[in-house]
Amino acid sequence: MDLPDPSTLDTVIKLGLKACFIAVLVIVLNALTIIAAGMWTATIGILAGF
């Protein structure tokens, strides 16, 4: 089995890094949304408490 040529390998690495970056971005955005929703719920709870 011969090695893939370097440009192909480079493209694969770049695509992999891009996929990882997008995955991290999605996770961070989801976490922020959950935190924001939690804070919003807590704020409404406090206001309703008064």
Task: Chart the SSEs and their pairings.
Elements: H1 6-49
What does this entry look like structurally?
The chain is mostly helical and 50 residues long. 88% of the residues lie in helices and 0% in strands. The chain contains 1 helix and no strands. It is rod-shaped, with a radius of gyration of 22 Å. It starts with 5 loop residues before the first helix and ends with a helix. The mean pLDDT is 90.
* Category by helix and strand content: mainly alpha
Compute the number of strand runs. 0
How many angstroms separate the termini? 72 Å
Mean pLDDT: 90
Radius of gyration in whole Å, from Cα? 22 Å
Helix content: over 70%
- Count of separate DSSP helical elements: 1
Which spans have pLDDT < 50 for at least 5 consecutive residues? none
The succession of helices and strands, N to C, reads: H
Our estimate of the beta-strand percent is under 5%
Main beta sheet, described?
A: none
Shape, principal axes of CA atoms? rod-shaped
What's this model, at a glance?
This protein has 50 residues and is mainly α.
Keywords:
single chain; 50 residues; mainly alpha; 1 helix; 88% helix; rod-shaped
